[in-house]
Write a structure and sequence with these properties.
single chain, alpha/beta, Rossmann fold, six-stranded mixed beta sheet, four-stranded antiparallel beta sheet, 10 strands, globular, binds adenosine-5'-triphosphate, binds magnesium ion
Length: 240
Amino acid sequence: MANKIKVEHLAINYGNIKAVKEVSFEFKRGEITTLIGANGAGKTSTLKCIAGLLPAKSGKVIIDNGNMHIDITKMTPADRLRAKLALCPEGRGVFPNLSVFDNLMLGAYLNKDKKKIAALVEQQYEFFPKLGERRNQLSGTLSGGEQQMLAIARALMSEPEFLMLDEPSLGLAPVIVEQIFDKFVLLKKNGLGLLVVEQNASLALEVSDYAYVLETGEMTLNGTGESLLKDSRVQEAYLS
Ligand SMILES: Nc1ncnc2c1ncn2[C@@H]1O[C@H](COP(=O)(O)OP(=O)(O)OP(=O)(O)O)[C@@H](O)[C@H]1O
Ligand SMILES: [Mg+2]
């Protein structure tokens, strides 16, 4: 069973711009790991590169099964999904003119087993009852919180072991953000490894097992969520 994703000395460039400079970190199954950082720190670039949507300039992304290491740095995004690594992207990326159901189906595009797909859809409706009630509604007419739930559910349709989420709380009311983070805790208890990118650090750190701070492309701090919540540098920059 895969137990962690290791990112080693990962660098990402846009032309001559060094967006991410040799960062190393890891996230484990059964844990919530948070990556916090200001606008432009390189959070989205890091997640996209791990998902295979951006090339790495140098460095590696590895699935570490304990006794087996799979280097996925050069794999296509589809192969990374098959390797059980999924991304819930920044801005949610739901297709507004498709129904909730059709958006979910897109998340299972690699799966050819119709019965299994139907069961996975039902599983999402159970996990997010609002989506079940609105299964035939066009996604563009869902509330922001419902769209975020749909984006998460669509990522879950690929049955990931590792799930990366890019700013899932953006633009949502605090009560909705709490509901979504409660789901993350349930997913973690089911054995998923979550990597959550957040600018809104306090709630993310509260539920995090481990966290990293990214500043202008470099990891400047790391520790348990609890220890970073108490860190004066984190408090000044991200919790005020
Ligand atoms: N396609 C691109 N071309 C050139 N530069 C880019 C591109 N995408 C991102 N960058 C630059 O890379 C840096 C990191 O951007 P990135 O989107 O990864 O940051 P972020 O931490 O996710 O920021 P935010 O919190 O605003 O989402 C920024 O300086 C940004 O301008
Ligand atoms: Mg971003």
